[in-house]
Amino acid sequence: MAPRKRPETQKTPEVVVRPKSKRNRSPWELEPEAKKLCLKGPGPSRRFDSGCLWAGLASLRVPPPCSIVRALHQHKLGTAAWPSLQQGLQQSFLNSLASYRIFQKAAPFDRRATSLAWHPTHPSTLAVGSKGGDILLWNFGIKDKPTFIKGIGAGGSITGLKFNPLNTNQFFTSSMEGTTRLQDFKGNTLRVFASSGTCNFWFCSLDVSVRSRVVVTGDNVGNVILLNMDGRELWNLRMHKKKVTHVALNPCCDWFLATASVDQTVKIWDLRQVRGKSSFLYSLLHRHPVNAAHFSPDGAQLLTTDQKSEIRVYSASQWDCPPSVIPHPHRHFQHLTPIKATWHPRYNLIVVGRYPDPNFKSCTSHELRTIDVFDGSSGKMMYQLYDPESSGIMSLNEFNPMGDTLASVMGYHILIWSQEEAGKRK
Asked: Where are the residues of the annotated region Disordered (predicted)?
């Protein structure tokens, strides 16, 4: 069945971009009752407690700039260890989060936002998809209006969004419309990679490898399809019993594939050895359905987010070892974009939105809907971002490739966080 004709691209008059008010005070001024972060160290089970409501940085021993410069010089001379230098840089970044504020907002959609992707080479450009199939291409560094590509409305939800690494003026989408396709910035469909041809089947996830020149996409009944960049199907297999919520290729070994599903498993595959549904390398069992599985930027770890209260970190070299488990409230709700934890692109940090749950063991009264930052090694809470004027649930949170600007999705809204002084310059 031929894919439905998509409406023409238009410049949206509905996008409202509002600079952050200078009158806003810091979260500490607005929340004097907030308690200091309580941390529990790792126990024998390698579980971590996310701690109390608010996380300050007073306990962090951040090296002054001169120490970092000295460490860089010592590393160049071969007298300083890279891990200690990286740790110092990471702590310096964590210290800078105290000055992060929302400096740009947009509310372009008539349905909630469902996916986002940063442009790989333009640090102030991102794409955001909505439940109605609309796509916003937004360079918030310039005053021009964002480009708005109108979707089909009901049934057109954008479930996956990736810029084309071979041509960054194009992007891939998977959708409930029943297609995985390649489009340009004008909204034209350049190639349809997969089409279900029926409203009973749709695509829920996608990823792209520039090295292997392949596209991988998963659907709502457990199938995963691998195609080359020319659109030729390499294989189509049912790899899970239920919906495939996320597919991810390892950034360093792109023949290494992780697939996450609501069947409560994350499976690891070697694309060179896939012969059938039982040819996975590992099956990582979870206690609840899984929203996402992200490889770390160095490919050495795998971060998974379930649909209730666990974030897990697996070591790529020791899949059989128990994972680090971070208890965290982010339960699933039908009318909420699923919460997915992501990695910082430069540091071993995890970023995830909080959905306070009264049944969660460390829940406090009047708990805020923050963006939580965890250390990927220890599982400790390092910081919580919060803005009293944007107090909804932050379902999606991703740093740009430079690692200095954070984009968040909150219902219908897109929020851009940056350091206060940097925000004023943009």
From this structure: 1-29
Render 117-137 in DSSP notation, one character per residue: EE-SS-TTEEEEEETTS-EEE
Dump pLDDT digits (tens) for 85-144: 788 899 999 999 999 999 999 999 999 999 999 999 999 999 999 999 999 999 999 988
41-59+103-425 — its CATH code?
2.130.10.10
Q: How far is CA 109 from the centre of its chain?
A: 20
CA separation for the pair 73, 228 (Å, rounded): 45
Using an 8 Å Cβ cutoff, are 288 and 310 in contact?
A: yes
DSSP string, 170-184: EEEEEETTSEEEEEE
- Asked whether residue 269 carries a pLDDT value surpassing 50, the answer given is yes
204-242 pLDDT tens trace: 999 999 888 999 999 999 999 999 999 999 999 999 999
Distances (CA, A) of 63 to 69, 88, 89, 91: 10, 6, 8, 8
Residue (of 219, 240, 356, 348) closest to 289 by Cα position: 240
Whole-model pTM over 0.85 = no
Instruction: Please tell me the distance from the alpha carbon of residue 55 to that of residue 160, in angstroms, as a whole number.
Output: 32
Domain residue limits, the chain: 41-59+103-425
288-323 pLDDT per residue, tens = 999 999 999 999 999 999 999 999 999 987 887 889
